[in-house]
Fold these 2 entries.
Entry 1:
Amino acid sequence: MTVYGIGLGPGDAELVTVKGKRILESVEVVYSPGRLSRSVALEHVPEEKIGDLDFPMTRDPETLRSAWKEAAAEIASVADDTDVAFVTLGDPNVYSTFGHLKRTLAAFHPEIELTVIPGVSAMTAFTTALDVEIESGTGLALREAANGAAPTGPDRMVLFKVTDAETTHRKLTEAGYTVQFGRRLFMEQGETIITDDPSEVDERDYYTLAYAEREGIEREVATAQFETESEEELA
Ligand SMILES: C[S@@+](CC[C@H](N)C(=O)[O-])C[C@H]1O[C@@H](n2cnc3c(N)ncnc32)[C@H](O)[C@@H]1O
């Protein structure tokens, strides 16, 4: 049978894809790695469908490996008889816990078929919330920026896992970037913060992103000409 890795989107239950929802409703068991992904899944399936798995909050590779080995064994044994889903916030292939499961299943349970259903990643949820357009001819890089890290290089970056906004902001500003932060985007109403002031997001919250853009980058947008023409016509 199949294990489906389903991306749930950034948190709003209406941003789950139609396909993701259909599969969630069709499988017997839905495993979730955290409280938030569980609460989104519960908007689409009853509590009895949620499977029981334990995930340690650690970075220790040995502990992680054995926890994922156990989780994969449990999922594989249930998937012997029936289809199951493993949900993640955002997209399953973007900085996600699903990667651990995918690798562990491939190594220890190669007979299990795995199908990934993409989801709306925080990356595009953030650019939408900020109204940043990735125009033709430009690029956008994804990076991680935990514990005050401030990667540089690309003209435009979305930084995941921002935990020390003040330090990340200071370093990026010194390196010539303008920075905006997004917190709890498309989650509970009233929880979302979008700001360029790091003191507004200085309290640590796992669901924080930053968008960094190199100051003074040139933009050549094919349709920008319309504005100029119509302004001239109006003058
Ligand atoms: C383990 S990664 C998971 C990313 C996810 N797979 C995706 O595609 O969006 C967790 C990080 O994603 C970011 N994130 C995910 N959802 C978010 C949201 N709704 N608002 C703000 N940040 C979010 C945060 O930076 C958080 O630390």
Entry 2:
Amino acid sequence: MVSETLRHSPPGWLFTRSTTRDVEFGGRRLPRGTTVLYSPYLLHHAPASFPDPERFRPERWLSGEDTGRPYDAMVPFSAGSRKCLGDSFAMAQSTVAVATIARRWRLRHPPGPVAPVRPAVTLGPRSLRMICEPRGGGLGRQSRGAGDNLVDHT
Ligand code: HEM
């Protein structure tokens, strides 16, 4: 679930690098000091690496499914010497957070259109209203009234 979220909608969707010397890259000669833009979003939506890329499909990360793509096709934390320092921590924290919340609550969108993700410094919904319903077994807090379980993340 966390991997597929980071693949489908990577918060960091566009980055730059500067060449520190003259290099040949992608069949082009780039002089020292050239700014190169690369997009994890576009890499994550390349059908050659991720078939049916627009579909949110957590199963694609099950063992046995993720063979055949280059190891650096998935770069939500970037790559190389400036790669995210907190990648392992972020994955562990997100997994624990999702598991803890989903154990107690079922989250769903209110009826109506869902706001599309919008690119800014990060990529994400600028407003996300969700309805939280306690799961069975009495683990969740009971609703006290209309709107009590509506979470508005803006
Ligand atoms: C899902 C959560 C996160 C995502 C998607 C993410 C993504 C990224 C990306 C893409 C970069 C590289 C930026 C670039 O190349 O210009 C980066 C850098 C960095 N991240 Fe994260 N990050 C996350 C969480 C964290 C956490 C939890 C920490 C610290 C505990 C952290 C610390 C850093 C640091 C210090 C850098 C700079 C590394 C450097 O320039 O040498 N990140 N992050």
